[in-house]
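Continuing from the previous page...

OK, I double-checked the sequence for Intracellular septation protein A against my notes and this is the correct one:
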Amino acid sequence: MNQFTELAPVILFVGFYFTTKDIYLSTSVLMIAVVCQIGIEHFRPGTIKPMSHIVLWSVLLFGSLTLFFQNETFIQWKPTIINWAFALILWGSQFIGGKSPIKAVLGKQISLPEQVWIRLGYGWALGFFVAGSLNLIIAYNFSLDFWVTYKLVGGFGLTLMYLVISVTYLVKSGHLSETTTPPTEHQ
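Thanks. Re-ran it with the corrected sequence; updated structure tokens here:
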């Protein structure tokens, strides 16, 4: 259910676009869907994830600019800005604060040496930078139809690819095996 809630706004955006071929109506639907997504998260146990806040405000900002100026370029730039922001956060966190956001998320599930967390952070930072750059290449060199399709399929495909690369790295370097256990509270 949680994954569906996270994917629903993008699926609705793409569905409305290909049904109506109206990027502005689709952008409005995306904005409404993300607000509804936050509402659903609000009523679930726990708190709203920081990522959801980032998505909400970026969709509202770039969606509003798209609608106000009647220019789809703004909504096309949103994935790039978000991906580059994540890249900067992952890269910058190695220097400022010295804490790996990836370790903060996954550190309770898997115990890894600090250097491995740093490498994973750099790898994912590079991945987010590439994803943002690829989004711009597609937005400026292909049709709007192609970009909308890429938004649905490409983003998930790239994330899956980064995940496979990360797991492969961990397995090949001997940091992930069937005997790997979550860290204890004393670690």
